[in-house]
Model the fold of this input.
Amino acid sequence: MNRLDDTLELLRRQARPDQLEGMRRFGMAGAQRLGVSIPALRRMARSLGPDHDLAQALWITGIPDAQILASMVAEPSRLTASQMNGWARQARSWDVCDQACSNAHSRSPRAWGRVPVWARSNDEFVRRAAFALIACLAVHDKSAPDQRFIEALSVIEGASDDDRNFVRKAVNWALRQIGKRNAALHALAIARAERIAARGSRSARWIAADALRELRSDAVRAAVERRRRT
Done:
């Protein structure tokens, strides 16, 4: 057996068929899904180590669990723009989309270039990927200047009327994560959320209200203040 076959066999041993119905109720789609838990996938990824060729082979299987594992063993520096676009198009579940953004895309030197491209897409999951990626970059890209995120706020506002569930939730996530990055961006994110609320669409009102509730909370304000002092 080759490494792909060995890995797929390991995945099948970790399958939890009794969890599939509950996962479907939470929007974790995929006819081939095995129900492997994220902690189990992370343990497998640590055991396998980085292997970009294996990552590509796992992704091509179309098995959601294998695609998440692919994002964990991928070598972000080796991701091409074409591969990233393909993964964004082929992710047909929000958890696969988000895990790919968190584990692989956000760590690629090409990450910021994908944001405006994916944000212009009409495909629900590709567009979600743009905002999931912004949210992940707000956490992982420690060296990015504030200007990157200020520009991203405009992209967020531009998508705030999209009422598709998987898009609006990612737009909201991106707005909240930018606002938690530092004190300057916290103030700008709150101001942008207020602008979004004024747009008046149902989606914009929900995105803004949910973001403002968190960004104005005592916990977030205290965390931002601690970052300002360090």
User: Anything to note?
Assistant: The longest helix spans residues 124-140. The chain has a mean pLDDT of 96. The radius of gyration is 18 Å. The chain is about 70% helix and 0% strand.
